[in-house]
Amino acid sequence: MKVLLVGEYSNVHHTLAQGLRALGHDVTLATDGDGWKNYPRDIDLKRPEDASLWSKFCYGLQLERAFARLNRYDVVQLINPIFLPLRAERIMRYYRRLRSRTKKLFVGAFGIDYYYAQAALDGHTYRYSDFMVGQTPHLFEDCATWIADWVEGGKGQVCREVMADCDGIVAGLYEYHAAYARVYPEKLAFIPFPIATSPDKGRVRGTSDGPVRFFIGIQRHRSLYKGTDVMWRALERTASAFPERCEVVRVENVPFAEYCRLMDKSDVILDQIYSYTPAMNALEAMARGMVVVGGGEPENYAILGIDGPRPIINVQPYERSVYEALCRLVRHPDAIPTLSQQSMAYVRRHHDVRQVAQQYVDFWTRL
Q1: Angle formed by the axes of helices 228-241 and 319-331, to 10°?
Q2: I want to staple 48 with a disulfide (CB 3.0 to 4.6 A). Which of 36, 55, 79, 113 is the partner?
Q3: Co-location of 141 and 229 in the same domain
Q4: Residue 220 forms part of a structural domain
Q5: Beta bridge partners of 252
Q6: Contact 102/75 with Cβ under 8 angstroms?
């Protein structure tokens, strides 16, 4: 099968490409590397940071050359309806070009879009979300921006057109599946995010007599949205309460390879307080044997069909909940090796890249 993957979020498409190639498929990856994260790709769609008219003109030429090469695929999958760093009204031109040149076109429900924004803002689809805790918005200014952009604005219009027209939609997390199940159940599939696993990738954490090593990665411009501001305050409190028993690594906006190198020295990662589920960063950490403090709600285990161990330390979207969970780990570090082993087993069983890639192939073929 000849496959084109367009766009990138948090290494989803690059990892999926690895799995598809391992199964013998011909895959082209056309992305911008997800900005400063700089994930590998075959065709570079990165836009220059310079906002001059000349840079815009050059980027337009870059896209024209790139899209001239993107022909005759069996399957095209877009990371999101907004799959290029362009104004919404310009996206449809490139969508129609891809649509006319492929047999089947699929779109990922992997992040913010019109339908997820609606669900996250309605106050009842989720108990809490990136924007709401219960009935209360926790990002007042961002909520207004998201509504204007993704619900009422051009991005929302593009999303509605693309999702109505495409052949199928893949949801990578419970939250995205819940948003789409009520709109497009007939062409929706839940397929877990892919993670590269190997026998030598992970190691059991927390076996030494030293301090518990905590890791937190912060995206400067998305800290409030991801909830890392809340988690960081809780981690600071924990380190202050147990200065001899905690070691903290904090990184901000570093490329993926450097991020993994720094993360790999730790025992515990803090990730996405407003999520029901572990996403790519948390899953990558779990594959390495780290323990995740973040989203591990019952809905996550239910959609995966898990009755066994639940290794994610689930926290509620409050500083106190995170602080109490971290304190328990510091007081009972003997729990870390077991959780570490369960974390690696969790990823191998449900997120192995070849297994996930086959689920994609089955879905693409079935539709």
Answers
A1: 40
A2: 55
A3: no
A4: yes
A5: 218
A6: yes
Total domains present in the chain: 2
Quote the CA–CA distance of 145 and 302 in Å, as a whole number: 33
- Both 90 and 34 in one domain: the answer is yes
In a domain, 232, yes or no: yes
Tell whether 27 and 85 lie within a shared domain: yes
Let me know: does 263 contact 308? Beta carbons within 8 Å.
no
pTM of the model: 0.95
Residues 259 and 217: beta-carbon distance below 8 Å = yes
How deeply is 27 buried, as exposed, middle or buried, from its count of CB atoms within 10 A (0-12, 13-18, 19+)? buried
**Helices of type H across the chain:** 12-22, 53-69, 88-100, 114-121, 140-146, 154-165, 174-181, 223-226, 228-241, 256-263, 280-287, 298-304, 319-331, 336-350, 353-366
Q: How far apart are CA 177 and CA 146, in angstroms?
A: 20
**To which residue do tokens 């890249």 refer?**
353
pLDDT digit string (tens) for 320-361?
999 999 999 999 999 999 999 999 999 999 999 999 999 999
Each residue of 140-163: pLDDT tens digit?
566 677 788 888 899 999 999 999
